[in-house]
Structure formats: C-alpha cells, structure tokens
Write a sequence for this structure.
C-alpha cells in the first residue's frame, strides 16, 4: 500500500513536469518557403516536381565536420537554385545518410536509401567508399531493371573510377588526380625558378597517384626538373613531420609537391613553419576545414593550391559564399555541390523527365552552367571537363575580401587553365544500357 | 554367457526444442521482415553471430582478452574475395557456396602463424600482443596494395561461377539463406566444442591454469588449439561478409572493428554461450538502426557498456539467466512492479538526457536550420530556458525515482538471492 | 659538413641531418615519455592498464584551450592538469573501485568504456573540428639555428617540462613520505593498510596523479600538434608500445623506451634503403616481377612509423618483461 502511494505521487510529479515542459516549449521554427516557380522556359513535364537525392556521406567520426559542411552546402545550393532559378523548374531535396566513413556501412545506407525510394545518390569523401558505391549501384541496376539509381560523385578523385572501373551510372564532378597533376605540371613548366622538386605523400592510392602523375607530367614538359626526393608516409600515423622536413632540407629541394590532407597536411605545414622553411608548397587540399588555420599560424607561407575552384569568384557565386558564411559561420568550399545541382537540373530539362535512366542519357555529352563558365560532361567516361585553377595563399584585399576560416587570407588565382589543358585520355570501355 | 549391454539415453527434448526454434527463426525471419534493408541486416546478423561466437571461444571460454580478432576475420575476408575473383576469371572452378570454407581455412592458417607467438603469454601481455599484431597488420594493409587493394580495397562479384539448381546468389534472399545455413552449422559446431574435453579444458585453463598443468595438460597447447579454432570460425564469418558486401577493405582488419567484436560480445554476455548470439544481433541493430536514430548513439553505447561492466559483467545473457532463475524459484511476482517502475523512470531520465544531448548537437551542427527542433514530436528551442529547464527537470525527476526504487529493489533482490542460495544448499544435502 | 658513406646500406649521413634528427628525435621521445609516464605509474601502482590514458591527454589539451581563451596559457598550464587529475580521481573513486574485485579484465574493459565516453563527451562539448589552440607568443619562434634549420623555442620548452616531470616524480617517489607509502602499497597493500595508511585513498591519488600527468602532456602537446577529438586515437597505441617496450611498471624503462623509439623513428625516416637496394649492392637484381617485390622494395623510411609496433611484438616474444621491467603482467 505504501509503495502504491509513492508510485502515485511519483507519477503525478512526472506528469506535471512533463506538461510544464511541453507547454513551455515553443513549436519548431518553420523553414522559409521556397519561391514559387514562374519561368515559362521550364518544360511542363518537370515543372514543380521534386528530385530527391540521397547524400551517403561520413557524418560522424573523424571527418564529420567536412561531411556536415558539405551537407549544408548541398541544402543551401538546393534552396538557391530551386524552382524558377533552374532550367527544369524542379526542386531538389537532399537527405543525409551517414556512412561513418566505411564502405560497408555505405552499402547498408545505399540499401536503406533505395528502400526509401531515392533514385539519385551523391557522395565524395573517400574513393574507397566511392568505388564500393559505384560497383554496388551497377550491380543493383543490372539486377533490378526499373529501379535504377544514378550516382553523382562530387569529390572522389581516384582516376580508376573513370577508367578501369568506369560505369554508365557514375558521373564525376571534380577533376581527378591525373587531371590536376596535368594542370600543375603545365603551371610548373613556366616557373623557371623551380628546378628540383621533393614529393611527399600519404602511402595509399591517392598519394601514390599524385606522385606518379606528377613525375610523368613533369618529365614530358620540363625534363630538366629533377625529383630530388620522394616520401610516402603511412596515412594519419605520423605525429611529427620534422624528420621529413629535415630530409627535404638535406635533399636541397626548391619546391615541394604534396597531396596530403587532414591532419597529415596540418602537421606538415606546422613542421615547415617550425623549421622556418619558406619553400613553395604545391598542394591539393589546402582549403579544407582546419588547414587554413594552420597556414595562418605560419608567417608568410608560400602555399599554392590546384583545384577546380578558388576563393574569389564574382557575381552569383561570391554572393553565395558570403551568404553561406553569414548563415552558418562556416566556409563554402565544395563548389562541386553547385555543379551537381546545376548539372542535374540541366539534365532533367533536356530529358524532360526526372526518370534516372533518361536523365543519365541526357547528362552524358552535355554542356551546362558550371562555376567557371560552361562545363562539359564527357561522354566516354563521365568525367566533367572544366577549368582548373592554380591559386595562392594571399592576404585578403579590398577587391577580394573573402577570409577563409576568418584568417584574413584567401586563395587568389595565379593562373586559370582552360579545360583542354587538364583533359586526360581515358581507358574506359563503357557498357551502356539499351 | 551372453554379453548384452543395455544402453539407455533419454531424448533431450529441451535441446531439440531450442535448436529447432533457432532453425525456425533463421528460416522465417526474412519472410517476416521483407524490406531490402531488413534482408541485408539479417544477413549481417548471421555474420556477426558467427564472429562473436568465435570471439567468445577466446574471451568467455578461454579467458583470453584479444584486441586483434578482426585480423583473422579480415584476412579470411581478403582470401575469400581473392578466391571469388579467381572463380570469376575461371582459374578456380569452385562453387560460390564453398568460398566461406576457403575463408575459414585462411583464418585457421593465420591463427596458426600468429597464434604461435601470441599464446605464449596470458592475461595482460596476451592482450597487448594481440593489440600490437592488430596494429601491425592494419598498417601493413595500406602498404601492400597487391593483396589488400589499397584504400579502395578489393571488390568482387558473387554472381559468378557455376550456379547449381539455378542459385546465383544475386538476390539478397538467396545469400541470406546461405548465411543462415552457415550460421546454424557453425553455431552447432561451436556449441559442440564446449561439450568436448578440449572445451572443458579450455574452461579449466581460464579458471586455474596451474591446476591444469598439474592434471597433465599443457595450457599453452590448449590455448593454441582454441586460438586456431576461433580463427577458423572468424575466417568463415569474414568470408561471408566478403560475399555480402562484395568488397573488402582495410577496415575489415582494423582496430575499431576488433573493438566492436569485444564490445558486443561483452555486452551480450561472455559467460554464456548464447550471449555472443545476442551480442551479434545487437551490434547490427546498433550500427544500422540506432545510429540513424540519434547522432549521440556512440555516447549512449559507451554509457551502456560502462554500466554493464560495473553492475552486470556477465552481460545481457547473465541478466536474463538470473531472472529466469528467480522465475524458476517462483519468486518473480514481487519484482514485477518494481521492474516496471524502474523501467519507466529509467526511460524518463534517459529521455531528459537525450533531449539535452539533441539540443547540444543541434546547436553545434544545425544552427542554420533555426533554433527549433522536434524531439519526440515536442518542439524544443535551444535558446529558451524553458526547454533546458524542462529537460533537466525531467531527467532529475526520472533519476530520483529510479534511484529511490533501485534501493528498494536491491534489498528485495538480495533477500531473494539468499532464499535461492538456501534452497540450493538444501537440495544438495538431500 | 662531413659526409660518411657506408656503401653497403647506402647510408648517407651528413652532420646537419644528423644533429637535426638527433634533436628532433630526443624532443619527440621526451614528449612520448611525458605521455607514458602517467600510464606506467598507474600500472605499477595498481596493475590497471588504463586504456583511457590517451583520452586524459586529449582532455588536457581541450581544457587548456578553453582556459587559455579566458585566462591565458600560463594559468592553463597549471589549472588544466589539475582539472584532469580531479576527473581521473573521481573516476577511480566512483567507477574503477567498483570493478576492482572482479579482476583485471573488467578493469581494462571499464577504462576502455571510459575512453569511448570521454571521446563522445569532448565531441559533444567542443565539436568535431580541430581547435585553434596556439603556442603562446612568448614561446613562438626559433631558439637557435643549427646548420640552417631552425630549432623552435617550443620544442625546447617541451623537453624542459618533460625533464622537470621526470625529476619531480622521482623525487616524490623516493624522498617523500607519501612516495614511500605508495611504494609500500604497491607490493604489500594489506600490510600498508594494516599499518593505518588509507590505501584506497592512495590509489585514488595515484590514478588522479597519472591522469594529471597525461593532462599536462596534453596542455603542452596540444598546441604543438593538432588539437582535435581524433588526437587520443592517434597517440593511444604509441604510448602502449612505449610502456610495454620499456617494461610494465618501470619509469626508467619508459624513459629509455620513449627515447629509443623517438630517436630510431626519426632517423629511420631519413634512411631510404630497402632490401632491393641491399640486394643490388650484392649484385642480385630484383625486379617488379620477382616474388615478394612489394615487401622487398619497402624502404626503411616508409616503414618508420610502424616500427614501434614491430618493436613491441618482438619484445613481447623475446623479453616480455620489457627492457627494464620488474613485473610481468
């Protein structure tokens, strides 16, 4: 009996606190309504429809902040290019699925996304995951006609994905490693001061490819440039880069080329700072979350980046970057998200349908509005052909005031290379569905 | 004189029922849960059950805490995927259904190689050696792309080779039934192991190695054989994983993967055979479903693990068995009420905590989407004191009631345990 | 600059590289010692191998970052380790003590669970991105320039703090009363308790002290290297290697092992020799079609970061007590 009384009192207290809680809470804020489509240019078959895309990306664990940034980027761009602002008059909806950075978990999430009716999938961080997704999607499409899925790869740069492992359903929006090295070596060709180069990379496919393609490219264009040293270190295991810096010094290099990213890049930069090395450093991923802050800690660092984008676009993209910064207090640096939405919109408009098979056929061999003018999706291997920029870490100016990670610096264009410069041949034997 | 020996062995009805029920569940599960995600989850559960059971041979039955078990399941997976590619290229005419055996043999061979140095010691040095070997293999996996496929791993196609009876293993359901068959057979074999003299000696080595030496058995040899058997079954599980995902990467041999096996085998219950089965099922549920529910799932998992180690080191299996024992002595009724209150108050406290955690995550990750978020269909606002205050209040109230009831429960529980112990003594003296 | 050539192993040492590598190796080794001293202390006192030690390191760095925002680096240098020490002592008192009677395996497991939880809590409070935890301006910049390469002031500071730490631990254990009680409780806990010392309280202090040491290492190391939630995982395995190689329970062993690993790893990075090269100098040609080419062509510099694990496995096989260890498991 005593126990029953206590239980009753407890439930009453619980109930009241629960009611207080529920009443005091304000209702969730509603997102701003999208602008109503008004442009008549959009085909009637597609106008007003919603294209749902599953973003299967690493949203927890080590690189969660990059994945979260890219999710926000996609959602932001989707809002900016919704309805009347795109040639198909469609709306885009990006829903996130967390693959925890693991290829096997990504396959689970793919199944979940397919179960929930998604026909478009996008991903980019990790070529391992990209390879697994591309294979799984090809197999799924083959085994399940009528339920095909299209895969938009926005950042996985392993050349194999558009060569030996190419697939009709896979579209790559970033320039792959061979293209970036083609661009970089074309730039170095004209840099008379560079006579001996040191290569330091992470010892896995990406790092090995950076080293391989750079050596090939520079041998063709400037055979007088010597590779005075090459290092492949285990990925994410080295805490202290000072011995590598000592090696670079001992080898007498006058420039360093690296494909490092994440902590490997940050620690390399710190070690260079500590040793007082002012050699020009040519990097891949100098603009990704965390690295600009490390760059700013050094004094007058000479760092250049080879990428499909830079900090100082004008017009619509500048506005987009500034608005993103205001809203999220984070930098918009994954411009491939803009490319993906733009390409999809054009594909849907050309195909006059949101059916993935028709859109895929429409998207290959298609020209559309990219970030540096027109971009073209190459039919033979589904690799996007676009400008590549060599940009340098420079103090922000009145004309180009953008500040990466609030450091007061940004990546200013040193050279803009036309698409044909970085275009590389492909060995893809693409099998197309009938 | 005629020598007629009369043998009488009663039918073990309980055993037949349990195994029959197990087989039935394996058969009918995919018919109850029909979505493609469910089928892949059920397949993964089968795989994890085999691997967790093999891990329990070391942990629960042998008292050997290993931090590198993923090495054997991962190497089995790599051998399996290479075999699959060899089948695809025509160099090896082996049916796909026998590929797991190849994986198992690979696990056995590697366990024989590494085990010879690992089992020299027991206890903490053993754990450290397994950790070191695990780290070594993982670091090497990125250095030898020929075998390990580098960052992208090695992929294969299971729809290859001969297809007897028209089974290609293309559709997930066919693969599920293959996995179910292997799960049933492997579970039966590992259960049989616990009933053999080797299994018993393994338990003895866990409890009192010195005495085992006196009885005449070589503890190192017993451990070594157990290590190899565990490696064999881990290899089978790894090979089935290779067939399921059709890709194997360095993640399959990584330290975190070993940690997952350890965590869930322990959570399921290392001291009972079926504990590892529970652990295997929980691991898939946690990774695939629970992680989609909340971003803080690893925190909750860590807290669960912590409290399990402190209060129920035998895992969920031990909790079930303890309560079954109480039921069998007919003393469960008075506990039902308290269990209900504990459950409800515990859930309430958890919800309060979860609300706060969700609000913190919202502030960090989704600020742009506004200040409001919905939690269990209640609108919350990260800027309003009422939301925070409410969450704290709910959590406090729930915890207070929980703690209050728990003390009463603890008193009643110990009384019942005393009673049971006296009963057992009494029955023994009969 | 002198050149020494040993043709067989293609070693090419010149003085600049040698001295720089030696200095870098010693400073890296001393940092490893700072990290592993607490772990060794806890193990030698309590027999508990604390899996969460690297997490205390991470906590120290994060607390120091926050305190530096408000009160500056020098205050953080003293307060952050204290806070971490209190967290450690609290954990021992309320959680670890409960599983002590269950044996060593549950103790290991509970620290494993703690590592998990600390990681998630840090991510909850500070986020998942790396933090801009900077070296204070007074310590930034080169101390001296040796053969053209600068040696940073901060590295020298790190070495100084590590040596101070070693000295103070040694003094504490051998010259103070509490140190003698700790040493007694190590080998004869019941006797020490019978004599009236509060042994459980001693254990709590030791655990808290070990955690505080890790926290101090975090304060110093967090701004030299990257301060992010992943820092515990990257450092965790190395400190276990150091403790095992040095000998479970020996502080001197930990020092020796950290210096050894630090110096060898640093020098190994500079050695580009591989078995292929050695074979070539013997006149044997090894090409990419030779069996095991991948293994043979591995350069010592590529293998350098995993050398610690190789050491650990070898030590455990051939000399499980460690280099200077006194107890085995």
């Amino acid at each position: 009996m005593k126990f029953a009384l206590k239980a009753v009192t407890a439930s009453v207290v619980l109930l009241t606190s629960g009611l207080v809680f529920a009443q005091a809470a304000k209702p969730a804020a509603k997102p701003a309504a999208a602008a109503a489509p008004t442009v008549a240019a959009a085909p009637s078959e597609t106008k007003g429809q919603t294209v749902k895309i599953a973003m299967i990306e690493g949203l927890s664990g080590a690189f969660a902040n990059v994945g979260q940034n890219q999710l926000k980027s996609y959602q932001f761009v989707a809002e900016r290019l919704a309805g009347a602002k795109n040639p198909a008059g469609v709306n885009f909806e990006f829903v996130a699925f967390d693959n925890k950075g693991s290829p096997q978990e990504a396959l689970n999430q793919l199944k979940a996304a397919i179960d929930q009716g998604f026909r478009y999938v996008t991903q980019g961080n990790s070529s391992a995951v990209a390879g697994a997704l591309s294979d799984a999607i090809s197999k799924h499409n083959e085994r399940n006609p009528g339920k095909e899925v299209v895969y938009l790869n926005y950042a996985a740069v392993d050349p194999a994905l558009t060569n030996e492992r190419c697939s009709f359903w896979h579209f790559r929006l970033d320039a792959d490693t061979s293209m970036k090295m083609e661009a970089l070596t074309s730039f170095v060709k004209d840099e008379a001061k560079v006579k001996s180069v040191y290569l330091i990379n992470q010892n896995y496919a990406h790092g090995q490819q950076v080293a391989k393609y750079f050596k090939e490219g520079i041998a063709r264009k400037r055979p007088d440039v010597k590779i005075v040293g090459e290092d492949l270190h285990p990925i994410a295991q080295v805490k202290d880069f000072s011995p590598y810096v000592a090696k670079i010094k001992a080898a007498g290099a006058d420039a360093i080329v690296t494909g490092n990213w994440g902590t490997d890049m940050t620690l390399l930069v710190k070690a260079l700072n500590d040793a007082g090395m002012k050699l020009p450093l040519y990097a891949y991923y100098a603009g990704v979350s965390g690295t600009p802050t490390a760059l700013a800690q050094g004094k007058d660092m000479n760092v250049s980046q080879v990428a499909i984008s830079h900090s100082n676009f004008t017009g619509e993209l500048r506005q987009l970057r500034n608005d993103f910064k205001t809203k999220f207090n984070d930098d918009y640096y994954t411009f491939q998200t803009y490319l993906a939405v733009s390409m999809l919109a054009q594909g849907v408009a050309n195909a006059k349908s949101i059916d993935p098979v028709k859109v895929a056929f429409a998207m290959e061999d298609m020209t559309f509005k990219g970030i540096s003018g027109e971009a073209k999706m190459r039919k033979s291997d589904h690799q996007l052909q676009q400008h590549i920029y060599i940009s340098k870490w420079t103090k922000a100016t009145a004309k180009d005031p953008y500040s990466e990670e609030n450091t007061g610096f940004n990546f200013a264009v040193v050279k803009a290379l036309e698409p044909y410069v970085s275009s590389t041949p492909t060995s893809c034997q693409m099998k197309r569905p009938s | 004189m005629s020598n007629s020996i009369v043998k009488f062995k009663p039918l073990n009805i309980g055993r037949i029922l349990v195994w029959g029920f197990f087989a039935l569940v394996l058969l009918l599960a995919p018919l109850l849960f029909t979505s493609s995600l469910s089928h892949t989850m059920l397949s993964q559960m089968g795989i994890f059950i085999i691997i967790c059971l093999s891990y329990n041979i070391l942990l629960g039955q042998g008292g050997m805490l290993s931090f590198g078990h993923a090495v054997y399941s991962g190497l089995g997976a790599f051998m399996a995927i290479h075999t699959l590619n060899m089948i695809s290229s025509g160099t090896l005419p082996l049916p796909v259904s026998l590929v797991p055996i190849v994986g198992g043999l690979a696990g056995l061979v590697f366990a024989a190689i590494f085990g010879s140095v690992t089992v020299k010691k027991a206890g903490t040095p053993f754990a450290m050696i397994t950790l070191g070997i695990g780290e070594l293999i993982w670091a090497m996996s990125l250095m030898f792309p020929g075998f390990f496929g580098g960052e992208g791993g090695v992929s294969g196609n299971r729809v290859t080779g001969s297809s007897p009876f028209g089974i290609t293993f293309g559709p997930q359901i066919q693969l599920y039934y293959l996995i179910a068959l292997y799960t049933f057979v492997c579970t039966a074999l590992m259960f049989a192991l616990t009933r053999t003299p080797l299994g018993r000696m393994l338990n003895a080595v866990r409890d009192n190695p010195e005495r085992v030496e006196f009885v005449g058995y070589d503890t190192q040899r017993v451990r070594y054989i157990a290590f190899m058997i565990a490696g064999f079954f881990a290899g089978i599980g790894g090979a089935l994983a290779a067939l399921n995902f059709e890709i194997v990467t360095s993640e399959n041999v990584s330290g975190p993967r070993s940690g997952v096996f350890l965590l869930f085998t322990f959570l399921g219950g290392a001291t009972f055979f079926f504990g590892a089965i529970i652990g295997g099922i929980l691991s898939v549920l946690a990774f695939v479903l629970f992680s989609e529910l909340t971003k803080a799932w690893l925190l909750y998992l860590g807290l669960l693990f912590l409290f399990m180690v402190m209060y129920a080191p035998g895992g969920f299996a031990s909790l079930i068995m303890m309560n079954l024992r109480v039921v069998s002595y007919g003393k469960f009724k008075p506990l039902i009420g308290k269990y209900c209150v504990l459950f409800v108050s515990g859930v309430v406290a958890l919800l309060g905590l979860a609300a706060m955690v969700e609000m913190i995550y919202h502030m960090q990750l989704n600020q742009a989407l506004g200040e409001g978020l919905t939690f269990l269909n209640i609108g919350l606002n990260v800027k309003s004191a009422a939301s925070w205050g409410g969450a704290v209040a709910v959590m406090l109230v729930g915890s207070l009631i929980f703690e209050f009831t728990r003390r009463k429960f603890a008193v009643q529980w110990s009384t019942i345990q005393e009673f049971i112990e006296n009963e057992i003594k009494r029955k023994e003296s009969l | 600059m002198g050149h020494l050539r040993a043709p067989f192993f293609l070693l090419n040492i010149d003085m600049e590289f040698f001295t720089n590598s030696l200095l870098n190796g010693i400073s890296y080794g001393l940092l490893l010692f700072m990290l592993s001293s607490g772990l060794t202390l806890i193990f030698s006192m309590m027999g508990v191998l604390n899996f969460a030690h690297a997490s205390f390191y991470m906590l120290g760095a994060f607390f120091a970052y926050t305190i530096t925002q408000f009160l500056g680096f020098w205050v953080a240098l003293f307060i952050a380790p204290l806070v971490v020490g209190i967290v450690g002592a609290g954990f021992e008192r309320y959680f670890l003590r409960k599983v002590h009677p269950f044996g060593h395996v549950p103790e290991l497991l509970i620290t494993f669970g703690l590592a998990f939880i600390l990681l998630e809590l840090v991510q909850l409070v500070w986020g998942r991105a790396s933090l801009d935890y900077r070296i204070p301006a007074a310590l930034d910049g080169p101390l001296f320039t040796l053969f053209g390469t600068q040696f940073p002031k901060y590295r020298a500071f790190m070495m100084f703090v590590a040596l101070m730490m070693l000295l103070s631990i040694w003094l504490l254990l051998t010259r103070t009363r509490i140190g003698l009680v700790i040493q007694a409780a190590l080998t004869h806990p019941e006797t020490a308790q019978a004599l009236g010392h509060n042994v459980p309280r001693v254990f709590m202090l030791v655990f808290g002290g070990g955690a505080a040491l890790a926290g101090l290492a975090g304060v110093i190391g967090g701004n030299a290297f990257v301060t992010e939630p992943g820092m515990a995982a990257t450092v965790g395995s190395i400190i276990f290697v150091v403790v095992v190689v040095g000998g479970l329970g020996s502080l001197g062993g930990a020092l020796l092992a950290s210096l050894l690993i630090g110096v060898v790893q640093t020098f190994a990075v500079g050695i580009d020799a591989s078995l292929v090269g050695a074979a070539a100098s013997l006149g044997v040609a090894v090409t990419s079609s030779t069996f095991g080419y991948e293994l043979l062509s591995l350069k010592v510099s590529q293998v350098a970061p995993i050398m610690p694990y190789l050491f650990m496995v070898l030590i455990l096989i051939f000399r499980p007590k460690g280099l200077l260890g006194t107890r085995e498991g």
Remarks:
- Chain C has 14 helices and four strands.
- The domain at 10-318 of chain C is CATH 1.10.3470 (ABC transporter involved in vitamin B12 uptake, BtuC).
- Confidence is low (pLDDT under 50) at residues 1-12 of chain C.
